[in-house]
Amino acid sequence: MDVSIILVSYNTRDLTRDCVKSIYEKTEGISYEIWIVDNASTDGSVEMLREEFPEVKLISSEENLGFGRANNLAIKESRAKYCFLLNTDTVLLNNAVKILFDFMEKPENSEVGGCGGQLYNPDMTYQWSTGEFNSLEKLYRKSIGINFHQIKYRLKDIFKNRIMKEKRYSLSSKQDVDYIIGADLMLRKSAIDEAGAFDERFFMYSEEAELCFRLKKHGYKIRFVSESHILHYGGASSYNKNLPLAVEKMILTSNILFLKIAYGEEAARKAKFYYVIYYLRYLVLRFFTPKAFARLIAALELKV
Fold first, then answer.
1. Same-domain pairing of 118 and 258
2. What backbone torsions phi and psi does residue 9 show, to the nearest 5 degrees?
């Protein structure tokens, strides 16, 4: 088997249906199987999958395991050469899986542990498909209001969308990156057998960054492949039954955990301090609104 395509669903029945259909419509030239791990959906997702796609390998969990733990269930069962992790709120726009497979199969890419393609917004403008590892320096600058990292990306957005009217991603094809956004991550099975799959301490967010960080520590590269095109709606599962503040708290918690695993407990403690400073500034700038208070409390409650 060339590729195990793995989806994790959580109350995204209609999106999951469209995603699976796009896999069958667009994927050719390789042998593949589809695994879907359902995180205790209550919208009829499991029933739909059993009725409409009986050939899909379905794992129905009785609890919401989160992103990493759910993916690990299918990764463990896979006997394919590659595992392609795909969000249910995506639609393949071309033969994306084959393009990534062919890239990984090239002899010169034997040291590539993971890769991913170009994500697009529903209006077909580009969507950030890669990320840079978080660091104490970035958080420090954010806490004191000098966030060059964020400014850089905002300027890129303005330049491309408003001046150049550019709809393709800024990175050159096959460029080394820190990590691939978890919406479409092709993993070499032998690499994750060596470095380990997702760290199950993460519930959601930052787990793909930590996995790519660990793969790099084992000597593997992470590459962006612009020829692989995938539409990504974004946030369908996380925002489905969670308020924005709850999602933001999950993101903060995962960021702290990433820094703790990557750089140590002292780094995590400093990161929490920087987040508290940032949200204190935010509280003042928002004139002590209830929403600003709630965000500050969330930062104070972060566990290291």
1. no
2. -110, 145
